[in-house]
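Appendix B. Raw example, untouched.
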Amino acid sequence: MDVLITGGAGTIGTAITDHLGDGEHSFTSLDVEEHPDDDVESVVADATDAAVVREHVADADAVVHLARVPMEVGGTSDQTVVWSDEHLENLRLHASVYEAAIETGLDTLVYASSNHAVGMYEIENAPDIYYGSEFEVDHAVQPRPDSMYGVEKVYGEGLGRLAAEASDLAVYALRICAVRDPEYDHPYGDAQRGVDQGRFEPDSAAYDEQVARMRCMWQSRRDIAHMVERCLADGSVEFDVFYGVSDNENRWFDIDHARDVLGYDPRDSADEWDAPPS
C-alpha cells in the first residue's frame, strides 16, 4: 500500500516509518523538512499548498494526515479564545486534504486528532486523575477542546465525519495522547525533558507530577505505529474516533473501542517502568 504522510518528518511521522518501514507499506513524506530515513520518499513542500497536496494524494492508496502550521497563540496550554492567521491556515489545510481525498477517490484517511479535542475533561479533574481514578473518557463523549489547538482538532474531526458520510472515504480520527521523540519515548520523558530544559529539578513536585501524568498519557512510538497500521488494514470503518495511548493502568482514555474495532493490541505500558532509562 502506498501511504502519503503529510508532516511525515515529525515526531509521529518518523515513529510510523521507523516501525512500519520494512513492512507491506511504501511511505511518502510530504513535509517542509527532508525525512531523515533515506528509505522513505521525501517530498519537501508546504502542505498548505492545495495543488501540491492534491498531486500527491492522487498517487496514494491512503493518507496519514499529520501536517499543521505551528501557532504562536492558542497552543495547548492556552485556554484563551483567540484568532490567528496560523489558525486560519490550519483550517484551510485540513479542508484541502479532505477535499483532495474525495476528489481523487482515496479509500482511507487517518487523521491525527489529539487528546486536546477533549482536554477540558483532564483540566476539570487534574491532578487527582493522574494518580488512579475510575473516570473514563471514551469515543462517544462530547468534544471539550481545551485550547484553540483543540478547537482546530475538533474541526478536523468534523471535516472527517462530513467527508466520510458524503463520500466513500473511510476516516479514522486518532485522539493521540503523548507520543515523543526517541530520546524521550518512555513515561519519564516529559519530566526528563523538563529537567534538560532547566524548568525543574528531578526531585521536585513538578517532576513527580509530570511523571504521574505521562504514566497515564504515554503512547510509545511503536504503539502509535501499530495503531496506524491497524487503521490502514481495517476496511470496516466509515468514520470513527480512537484514543492513541499505550496500555497504561492509570489512563483515563478508553482503548477497548480500538481493541474491538481495529484489533489494536498495544505492546507497551507505563507500568513496566519504575525509573527513567539510565
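End of appendix B.
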